[in-house]
């Protein structure tokens, strides 16, 4: 019998253990309701035990730990205890932990830390005993390959090295001994070096390229210098003597240089590209990359250079989605409705059925006088609860469709799920404010769950007042129709307070928050934006200072009250900068007011056209989602709009003056 035969684990398990080990973990960890006073007491003991362990008061720690053996977070104490004392002699303790707590995310965390310790001390056979081929990140993968090499299994290791080598960025130091052994075995040839140089140059990794140069012969190295030269000064490509020379990577270098030149002088770059097209050997991928770059920069230039570029593209390349989209948006921005229709009709038939293309086909048909056909498309599209569905309804003068279907789940299944050890751990961690660990437990417990089981999990998240997990769980299975689950009203009093103080729409603030963080209070973006409304620390400090307040440290932005207050005030500031236009303010919240000021048209544009032609794809999609979410939140707040509010559909007017921006 395997995990897939047990409730909520239909997809099987990644960990090969016997059912004897697993059953205690899958059974209810405790018959107590996690919200009972008994658990309140245990939480206090748990926190005290953690503090005692951290302070090194081991006698007190062991005394408290004894009282927590039936508490859901007992594995976390054991994990902290073992991590704090981990040494080479800990092998038996590690094995016991991995066996006893295999069905927790802690097991993988401990395993990875143990593997790093073994690698640090060159315990390569032990390393292989604990690792798997798919175990861990790139550092652990390289450690495993080194372990194979050091234990006489080089042939097996070398089969995996090329995949790690061919990457455009520097690899961790753990990979260096592996690369060295691979090279000494005669398996690193110049073609593999050149392949990686190309990846590095396309990633802008000049330092890595200079390092890789040492693996080439003296005759090859000048071509690397040429590539670096035209990367920094692409204008030198014009009339460069290397244009007349031959080399296997000549075209890759020239294509790179033309793309770089297009940023500064797109017309000159296009002229050079037209001449280069007579040179044989350019791959379709190289051509597409150059054409995309030229199209991006020629679109910003006056004249017919862009149209001339598209005329030079062979038919097969015109089907490239990026180029098709660019052609479409340029035609739309210029109100060339015939070209809009032609571009859409070039798309594969299944793609033409997407809501976006159906809406713009309808708009274009109406614009060229084929109103009957256009209206028919709009009527069908208006059945959808979506951005394009709302636009279609608005154009027809119809009420916005707010189809809602409440989730219905089996109560016995709900009870069974709620008592799984992993779910109880997830809930305890959430109650303690340890959001990241709580999400890890939730996701780990639900790995391999079926569609129906995930529906039950979403309902459980609702009951546990965990809106983010309800949203993410439903998204996994594309279940879109329970608006109460997908668009929760968490933090309503905080949002209402700010909306009233600033005279902003509550629905709009909710929509921004829903798009920014999906109600994850400790959300952090790759750019460093924090909290529910994803504020950059510098922006938050500036807003706070303008309010006569002080943000002591960036971690305050994880507090819902602080984040919503500052986020709403920043939204209000960009709303005023954008002359009270919520579409422009939404774009500014995402991309910054100065960028939006640069994107404004020289002449008035319909709002839907302007949104569709915003240069940043991220901001385009952000605008569409926030606009749709705002309408849904109007509905959730009991004020379903019959049509788009006028403020959300008014035309986008010409440039904002420097003073206003």
Automatic annotation (TrEMBL):
The keyword Transcription appears for this protein: no
Residue ranges annotated for the Lytic transglycosylase superhelical linker domain, each copy included: 418-483
InterPro entries recorded: Lysozyme-like_dom_sf, Lytic_TGlycoase_superhlx_L_sf, Lytic_TGlycosylase_superhlx_L, Lytic_TGlycosylase_superhlx_U, Transglyc_AS, Transglycosylase_SLT_dom_1
Classification via Pfam families: SLT, SLT_L
Source domain of life: Bacteria
Keywords: Signal
Transmembrane segment boundaries: none
One cellular-component annotation, GO: membrane
Entry's Gene Ontology BP terms: peptidoglycan metabolic process
Signal peptide (UniProt feature, chain positions): 1-29
All residue ranges annotated as the Transglycosylase SLT domain in the record: 494-605
Keyword RNA-binding among UniProt keywords: no
Molecular function terms, GO-annotated: hydrolase activity, hydrolyzing O-glycosyl compounds; peptidoglycan lytic transglycosylase activity
Gene3D superfamilies for this protein: 1.10.530.10, Bacterial muramidases (1.25.20.10), Lytic transglycosylase, superhelical linker domain (1.10.1240.20)
Family, as annotated: Belongs to the transglycosylase Slt family.
Name of the protein described by the UniProt record: Soluble lytic murein transglycosylase
Biological source species: endosymbiont of Ridgeia piscesae
């Amino acid at each position: 019998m395997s995990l897939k035969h047990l409730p909520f684990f239909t997809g099987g398990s990644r960990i090969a253990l016997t059912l004897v080990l697993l059953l205690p973990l899958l059974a209810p960890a405790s018959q107590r309701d996690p919200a009972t006073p008994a658990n309140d007491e245990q939480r206090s003991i748990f926190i005290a035990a953690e503090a005692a362990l951290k302070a090194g008061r081991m006698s007190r720690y062991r005394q408290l730990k004894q009282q927590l053996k039936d508490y859901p977070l007992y594995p976390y104490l054991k994990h902290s205890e073992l991590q704090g004392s981990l040494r080479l002699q800990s092998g038996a303790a590690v094995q016991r932990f991995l066996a006893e707590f295999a069905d927790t995310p802690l097991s993988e965390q401990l395993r990875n830390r143990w593997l790093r310790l073994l690698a640090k001390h060159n315990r390569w056979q032990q390393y292989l005993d604990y690792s798997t081929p798919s175990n861990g990140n790139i550092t652990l993968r390289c450690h495993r390959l080194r372990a194979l090499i050091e234990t006489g299994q080089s042939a097996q290791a070398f089969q995996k090295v090329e995949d790690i080598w061919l990457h455009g960025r520097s690899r961790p130091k753990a990979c260096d001994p592996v690369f060295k052994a691979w090279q000494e075995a005669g398996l690193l040839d110049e073609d593999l070096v050149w392949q990686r140089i190309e990846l590095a140059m396309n990633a802008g990794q000049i330092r890595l390229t200079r390092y890789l140069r040492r693996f080439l012969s003296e005759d090859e190295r000048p071509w690397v210098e040429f590539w670096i030269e035209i990367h920094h000064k692409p204008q030198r490509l014009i009339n460069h003597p290397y244009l007349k020379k031959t080399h296997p990577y000549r075209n890759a270098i020239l294509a790179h240089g033309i793309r770089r030149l297009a940023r500064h002088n797109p017309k000159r770059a296009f002229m050079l590209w037209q001449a280069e097209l007579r040179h044989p050997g350019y791959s379709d991928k190289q051509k597409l990359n150059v054409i995309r770059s030229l199209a991006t920069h020629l679109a910003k230039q006056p004249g017919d250079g862009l149209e001339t570029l598209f005329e030079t593209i062979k038919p097969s390349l015109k089907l490239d989605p990026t180029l098709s989209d660019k052609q479409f948006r340029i035609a739309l921005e210029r109100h060339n409705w015939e070209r809009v229709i032609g571009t859409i009709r070039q798309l594969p038939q299944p793609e033409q059925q997407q809501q976006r293309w159906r809406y713009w086909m309808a708009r274009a048909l109406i614009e060229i006088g084929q109103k009957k056909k256009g209206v028919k498309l709009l009527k069908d599209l208006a059945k959808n609860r979506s951005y394009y569905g709302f636009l279609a309804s608005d154009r027809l003068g119809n009420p916005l469709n707010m189809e809602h279907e409440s989730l219905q789940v089996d109560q016995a299944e709900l009870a069974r799920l709620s008592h799984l050890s992993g779910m109880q751990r997830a809930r305890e961690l959430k109650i303690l404010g340890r959001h990241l660990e709580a999400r890890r437990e939730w996701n780990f417990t639900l790995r391999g769950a079926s569609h129906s089981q995930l529906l039950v999990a979403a309902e459980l998240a609702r009951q546990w007042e965990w809106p983010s997990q309800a949203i993410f769980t439903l998204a996994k299975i594309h279940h879109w129709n329970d608006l109460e689950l997908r668009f929760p009203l968490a933090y309503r009093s905080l949002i209402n307070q700010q909306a009233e103080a600033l005279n902003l729409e509550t629905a709009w603030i909710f929509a921004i928050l829903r798009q920014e963080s999906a109600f994850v209070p400790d959300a952090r973006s790759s750019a460093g934006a924090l909290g529910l409304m994803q504020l950059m620390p510098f922006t938050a400090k500036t807003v706070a200072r303008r309010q006569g307040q002080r943000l002591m440290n960036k971690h305050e932005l994880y507090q819902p009250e602080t984040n919503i207050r500052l986020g709403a005030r920043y939204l209000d500031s960009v709303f005023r900068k954008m002359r009270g236009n919520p579409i422009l303010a939404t774009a500014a919240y995402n991309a910054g007011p100065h960028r939006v000021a640069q994107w404004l048209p020289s002449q008035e544009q319909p709002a839907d056209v302007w949104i569709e032609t915003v240069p940043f794809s991220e901001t385009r999609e952000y605008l569409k989602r926030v606009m749709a979410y705002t309408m849904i939140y109007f509905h959730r707040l009991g004020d379903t709009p019959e049509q788009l509010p006028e403020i959300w559909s008014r035309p986008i007017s010409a440039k904002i003056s420097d003073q206003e921006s």
